[in-house]
Amino acid sequence: MSLTAPPAPRITYGAVLGSPYVARLLGGTLTGRLPNGMAPVAILLWATASGSSIAFGGLLSALYGLSSALAQPVKGRLMDRHGQSAVHLPAALLNSALLVALPLAGPYGGPGLATAIVVAGGLTTPPLEAGLRALWPSVLPNPRLRHAALALDTGTQGLLYIVGPLLVAALASAYNPAVALAVTAALGLAGTAAVALAPPSRHWRPEQLVSQDAVQTRQLATPAVLLLFVSLTGIGFAIGAMNVWSIAMAEHHHQDMLSGIIPAAFSTGSFLGGLIYGSRTWSGTTTRRLMIATAAFLAGWLPLFALPGPYAATAAVTVPGAFLTIVVACAYVTTDGLTPAGRTSEAYAWLILAIGAGQSAGTALAGRLAEQPLASAALPAAGAAFALAVLLAARRRLGPTGQRQRGRHKTP
Known about the structure:
Helix content is 78%, strand content 0%. The protein has helices at 13-18, 22-49, 54-70, 72-82, 85-123, 128-139, 143-155, 157-174, 177-196, 199-203, 214-217, 223-253, 258-278, 286-301, 310-316, 318-338, 344-368, 373-398.
């Protein structure tokens, strides 16, 4: 008789979504985060429709995204101290009110008031992404289900930046940008309310530090955590550079749609890669998977050095896109193992900020090099190479011996 244990049953996404509250939390988070893809475009369209220059509209759009990213760690720490609903609901109400007020107040206050409203709107975006990642351990105690949910959650993020801009464009074309801003506000508020009023979010509290370990585990900015986040700026840099490179490709080949098609192909690859990754059980440590996925992410950008044509370029970016979800999902699991109990939401928020900061840097540098085809095409690979180099240097710190016991979250 064989004593070999039977293989574990395969995890399906039906089982994940059928678990209590999962569909509501995931759907609510995606809906509540649609403004991340909608608001920058809607603000730009409103500004230009109101008589402002494209440059000023672009500035407002960038300020919204930047202020949203910079405020993430503060809101993450507030969640760790006061719970999720106490942060999500006030933030969503303020954010929605400011988006609706922008078309009303803009003509009367001029550029200064419009800028203030946009910055305040960005600062008050609900921290739904970090909040959802902190909820998974209490909602899905089964590690395999949690693995699949995290991959599904991460893989669907790119769809926000496909659906969001398309929805804004349709609303602005059929009505006007003010209507697009109002719908953006309504979706953000509805999605956030669905999450914040769900029992897991209302009852969630981080594990409190036990007294004997409080001094040793209270520090968040350990060398391992810092190195991990620095590496993720390279991942964000690659994404930001790719977005600008796609615009340069569109101009070079006189095909305006490429500026949207190439990022959409990248996001589609991310979605499909996440589905495949989350549906299987993988051997090896999370750190090893993170290294391999980052190396594959780098390799996926190398064909761009050949300066491919539009069709080949669109197909090529799906490869690094497919590994992006794995990199980010493994980064979250690694962060969880390195973070002291009671500070997971704040740590996740810093992770989001690290990727966003890298993306901004990649966008800025790629903009300067957009007229140099080879340099522009090489920037995504440069960002990925930086990420891999930092991870390789930090691999001993990121491994199991360098990680603290992962905190547990109270179950509602």
